[in-house]
Design goal:
CATH class of the largest domain: Mainly Alpha
Strand content: under 5%
CATH architecture of the largest domain: Orthogonal Bundle
Radius of gyration: 20 Å
CATH topology of the largest domain: Rna Polymerase Sigma Factor, Chain: A
Number of helices: 9
Structural class: mainly alpha
Largest sheet: none
Helix content: over 70%
Distance between the termini: 65 Å
């Protein structure tokens, strides 16, 4: 199919990230839209894990893509786009949390709106809510640098190298922070697990 300027229309979804980025750097807004489509869920999920609030995560995700759009010309083709994107999101979330001086919890009212895949026994629901609250409280106690590494590894399933690239730290530092986060969480949750 030809467009008005007689150039062939390309199915952007069939192109790899580097090809899409090159098109974006040349001013192709549709190409950047394809990057948004590819990564918006992962970006939102990371922002949500760091803020525990869907509205804040949505705002931060949008801000991250705006910043990426403004900086796409400086992106080095050949590097992994999502690593670069995650670094933007992590930095935005950390700055957001510093401004608010505390992490926003997912309220029980929001949890009640999350649809259940199957009907559960009320006792099981209460127990799951208590466990969820206990885990959220334990995560809140972690320092930001440990919480970030933990979220990237556990919730985003990034490799140690990907986390190191995202945060611009060594793999050894990633492993150390992750280990400290896990040990701290075990300690915070030990009373609950004994029940």
């Amino acid at each position: 199919m030809k467009t008005a300027n007689n150039t062939a229309r390309v199915d952007l979804s069939s192109l790899d990230d580097d090809e899409i980025i090159i098109r974006s750097q040349k001013g192709d807004n549709a190409a950047f839209g394809e990057l948004v489509n590819r990564y918006q869920r992962r970006v939102f999920a990371l922002a949500y894990q760091m803020t525990q609030d869907s509205e804040d995560a949505d705002d931060l995700s949008q801000e991250a893509f705006i910043r990426a759009y403004e900086a796409i010309g400086r992106f080095q083709v050949g590097m992994k786009f999502y690593t670069w994107m995650y670094r933007i999101v992590v930095n935005l979330c950390i700055n957001f949390q510093k401004k608010r001086s505390r992490i926003v919890n997912l309220s029980p009212e929001h949890e009640a709106r999350i649809p259940s895949k199957r009907k559960q026994n009320p006792a099981v629901i209460i127990q799951n809510e208590e466990l969820g609250e206990t885990i959220r409280n334990a995560l809140e106690k972690l320092p930001d640098h440990q919480k970030t590494v933990f979220a990237l590894r556990v919730f985003q399933d990034l490799s140690y190298k990907e986390i190191a690239d995202t945060l611009n730290i060594s793999i050894g530092t990633v492993m150390s922070r992750l280990n400290r986060a896990r040990e701290a969480l075990k300690s915070y949750l030990s009373g609950y697990m004994k029940l």
